[in-house]
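Notes to self after the call with IL:
- keep both proteins in one doc
- input above output, always
- annotate only the second one for now

Protein 1:
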Amino acid sequence: MIHGFLRVLSALAVKGFVSFVIQDLPRHKGVNAMMPNFSYVRPKSLKDAVKQLSSDGSGVLAGGTDLLGCLRDRVFESKKLVSITDLAELRGIKKAANNGLRIGALTTVTELAESKFVLEQYPALSQAAAEVASPQLRNQGTMGGNLCQKPRC
């Protein structure tokens, strides 16, 4: 049921409904395994994202594979999630100065693993990215999120 609920919320966000509050759902047998309350915004520019993130209790949402579990498990709290998924300037893989590599924070692990440029110039990086987690997590998880995740072990 919760997965269907989250799919509906995601569809609403995609259709331009940019701000809503997710409410706690009823507890099952006294166990709080549901998400806490938070607001959700989906800015359309980097400038607006920075502005939204400047308020207390704000957190960044990109792939969400680690963040949503941390919120559900009360590892930390966030009063507002700022989705940066629409910010194209944070995506992509490009050659950088001095033969370096620029990997955007919103680049997924799959995009890194399958990049022709990375495969040709950095084959070990491509291979490592292809071995991380499950295909579902590689498709959803972002490089920025992987660098910023909160270890829970």
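Protein 2 (the one to annotate):
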Amino acid sequence: MHETMMNTPTLPQILVIDDDLDIQSFLMLALKNNFRVKAVGDATQALKEIQADPSRFELILSDLQLPGMSGLELHEELRKLGLRIPLIVMTAHGSTESAVHAMKNGVFDFILKPLDADELIISINRALRVQTLETENSVLRQEVTRSWKVENI
């Protein structure tokens, strides 16, 4: 393997959940240059994918209304499992109330369909930056706590 290939950062992996195959295709095409994308048609399949490897996906992009379990119900299930994967919800049936409810419950962003690819990429990048900062903050807090223990003074 060439050294330049070894130093190439891996693109973030996103899980897309939408039962509309046209939306899945659009998202795969719109995101393929910036992200690795896996698409599934319902939240139950998404939950199986996530549980198989909880660290596989850096972000979830989900339709609000899905067969079996909604995007918000999936978010609740992930929180119960202790997983904090950023979630962006997409919907064609959005209201201000549902957006506020979603955001209060930890959803990173709420985007109305029809989707604008540029707006979506900006939102995804913002969510990934926030996730990185939260992770770095947590690591730094642990280091400070460890270094200020009585036995280390």
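Annotation: The helical segments are 3-6, 21-31, 43-52, 71-80, 96-104, 117-147. The CA atoms of residues 40 and 60 lie 11 Å apart.
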